[in-house]
Design brief:
- The protein has one domain: P-loop containing nucleotide triphosphate hydrolases (Rossmann fold).
- It has a 4-stranded parallel β-sheet, with helices on both faces. It has a 3-stranded antiparallel β-sheet with strand order 2-1-4, with no helix packed on it.
- By secondary structure, the chain is an alpha/beta fold.
- It is globular.
- The longest helix is centred in the middle third of the chain and has 14 residues.
């Protein structure tokens, strides 16, 4: 299976959820605590409950609601940080690949800025670019009220790397899941 399979993960979720490579799907849970737990379960940070199944075809990367960027690195430095952890290439080759991902995420004009110098939406996209460059099979997107919705930020047609990655959005508000399959 390419992507993600969830079975009996949490009460209130469908008994089975399959998200294939290149697909986007949302999971709407009741509380922020359940959202955090769900993200941790899928990312492998928590042990699934008895009889629950979490299967992935490869590594999972979590993008926290605020982007999860390291404050002492520029946007490009953050994206490179994700890339270096997953690939063995020269610095020049890594930077070229990261710049391409940044272009696809519409981050060209903020590459030399620090996270606190860019908008919340751009921080989210930079966190996504960082996750993409680590070559995962699944990306888990956390959501939070007061931030731009992931559906308004993502342009899967432009971010070609997402064509081979299962993307799951975890939110407490069904209105914030617009733009994702449910």
């Amino acid at each position: 299976m390419d992507g993600l399979l969830l079975q009996r993960l949490l009460p209130g979720l469908p008994d089975e959820v399959r998200i294939g490579a290149g697909q986007q799907h949302s999971l709407v849970v009741a509380t922020r605590a359940e959202a955090r737990l769900c993200a941790d379960l899928i990312a492998g940070l928590e042990e699934p409950p008895p009889n629950a199944v979490v299967e992935t075809s490869g590594p999972v990367r979590l993008v926290p609601a605020e982007g999860g960027l390291l404050p002492h690195l520029t946007v490009l430095g953050n994206i490179l940080h994700g890339h270096v952890a997953a690939h063995r290439v020269t610095r020049d080759a890594a930077e070229k690949e990261c710049r391409l991902t940044a272009t696809n995420c519409d981050l060209d004009d903020v590459l030399h800025r620090y996270p606190h110098e860019i908008t919340p939406g751009r921080r989210r996209l930079a966190g996504l670019a960082r996750a993409v460059r680590s070559n995962p099979s699944v990306i888990v997107l956390e959501d939070a009220p007061g931030l731009p919705t992931w559906g308004s930020l993502l342009r899967p047609d432009n971010i070609t790397e997402l064509w081979s990655i299962a993307v799951v959005l975890i939110t407490t508000d069904p209105d914030r899941a617009k733009g994702f399959d449910a």
